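**User:** Everyone, produce a chain:

**Assistant:**
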Amino acid sequence: MTKTPAYLESKSHYEILDGLRGVASILVVVFHVLETYSGDRFHQIINHGYLAVDFFFVLSGFVVAYAYDDRWGKMTQWDFYKRRLIRLQPMVIMGTIIGALLFYAQACGAFPLIGTTPVWKMLLVMLLGFTMLPLPVSMDIRGWQEMHPLNGPAWSLFFEYIANILYALVVRRFSKLVLTVFVVLSACFLVQYLVMGPQGDVIGGWALDSTQLHIGFARVLYPFFAGVLLMRIGKLIPVRGAFWICSLLLIVIFSIPRIGGPEHLWANGLYEAVSIIVFFPLIVFIGAGGSLTGKYSTKICRFLGAISYPLYITHYPFIYLHLAWVVRNKVPMATGLLGGVVVLAVSIAVAYASLKLYDEPVRKWLTNRFLRKRG
């Protein structure tokens, strides 16, 4: 019995887009470290770092359409779901395990429920976390009402999965015109929340209640399916030095201070709407149309692309730990930032080790087991 591929092999990557995902992942870690000292949403350092999630959604939609739009005659929906699960789920499990291992070391006043959570309940939450099923507020074990309290950022993967399911069930069949209408309506949904909503920002989406689900769907629908539309339009912008230009644009967009105060929430909402609706697709356009010529740029993009997803999905337990250390010991910002540098270094090291020692071998085994036919 020999094994032959049941479907097309993986396509070549847009390496600049992979690199940009890595840049955004590192900025997310830095944002979360600095968030410890920010006070509130009006005074955060790298104030708009949370927009990295919305940028990830644009990238994901673009990449999913590139990888699968022309393959539906050669695979079923279940084949698509298997591919996406094999790509994403192993690192979800790793991030949850890391969160469980560090959970009780994170006990502090900022996480009021940790100290009273029995081990059996934490282990139950861990097992449920492996499935990506969102937990109701009643099962919170931290005190932040997260749908994934061992690894907060997994909420975005929950919405990523929903977007993938919508793509496979319905959106892949849309004509370019129908998809354009859907994307425009999704943009209106996002703008309505940002400009007329109660926050003036897209912070949220991580709890299983009506308010947070509203935020989550507003955040995922436009960017993900705008990414799909970008891929179908197919007109890219070739720009020399695209990786460095796009990286600088991301840094600037994420670092802009909060615009307007509590009395002018619409102003910041308008800024975020323009960033998500206009600038993020533009950056993807430029990045996808660019090319890498220098060997160092190529190596940097490949490394950043490789660690981007592992870094994003495993770093937050270390952020919890860093916050607990600062709160328990009343660590001043100057000292805490040194700890933050350690958190960033450890997070990158753990992400790379997880990728090489766990994620790649597991995905290879799963691919051979579930995506190849015996012939």
Residues 1-7 have pLDDT under 50 and may be disordered. The longest helix spans residues 333-370. DSSP finds twelve helices and two strands in the chain.
